[in-house]
Design goal:
It is built from four helices and four strands, in the order αββββααα. Strands 2-1-3-4 form a four-stranded antiparallel sheet, with no helix packed on it. With about 220 residues, the chain is of the alpha+beta class. The longest helix has about 50 residues.
Length: about 220
């Protein structure tokens, strides 16, 4: 193999540092200034001190003086947790909306008329109505029994006769059960009201979807 001449090797060694310096100069990132607010004062520097790393800041080109970027302040742990919770809620809302849209499409294809759709809720409505009626009956019955026990206990006290421990215990138990049944009654009545709102909302959506369909794309009538 032919060897390089000494003068060529010397020239390469001489040019190498200059070429490296030129490449470093070309590849070096452009200088920029950092500006942030600290203790109510605007501070600008070509180096970002450690204590300012978490501050909101602007990045400005040292050459042109124009703003080239912006960095928001670092969030606290509580803010990060809040942001994560909000992101999770947005994902849930989107999933719920997607589910609702698919449900609406299925509903539109499955039920030809409002009456067909209403029949879906008949069983559920009947169950809630039965719960309301049962709770109302229980409340009325327990109230009458409690009034009777209290009258008996009052008559005994007025006649200076002792009220037995068993009667006292029965009064307490009946009163506690009356309170529980009243709570159940309120819960069932609330469920009934919410069910009416839900049914009306679904019917409104159904009517909207039906009204937006072209006449030739309405669901076909099902054979009885």
């Amino acid at each position: 193999m032919r060897k390089q001449t000494p003068w060529l090797a010397l020239a390469l060694l001489t040019l190498a540092p200059a070429a490296l310096a030129q490449k470093t100069k070309v590849d070096a990132p452009p200088k920029k200034l950092y500006c942030w607010n600290e203790n109510g004062q605007r501070v600008c520097s070509d180096a970002l001190p450690p204590e300012a790393v978490n501050y909101a800041r602007e990045e400005i080109s040292a050459k042109s003086g124009l703003r080239t970027g912006e960095v928001n302040r670092t969030l606290t742990a509580e803010e990060r947790a809040q942001a994560a919770a909000e992101a999770a809620q947005r994902a849930l809302d989107k999933a719920a909306e997607d589910t609702r849209r698919r449900t609406d499409q299925a509903m539109l294809m499955s039920y030809r008329t409002e009456d067909d759709l209403r029949r879906v809720f008949n069983e559920r409505t009947a169950i809630v109505d039965n719960n309301v009626q049962t709770a109302r009956y229980n409340v009325a019955s327990l109230r009458e029994g409690l009034i009777s026990l209290l009258q008996t206990a009052g008559d005994r006290e007025l006649s200076e006769r002792p009220v037995s421990a068993e009667m006292t215990q029965n009064i307490r138990l009946r009163h506690a059960e009356l309170v529980r049944q009243r709570q159940l009654q309120a819960s069932f009545e609330s469920q009934r009201g919410e069910l009416d709102i839900e049914i009306e909302d679904i019917l409104q959506r159904y009517r909207t979807m039906k009204g937006s369909l072209p006449a030739d794309s309405a669901p076909a009538a099902t054979t009885p």
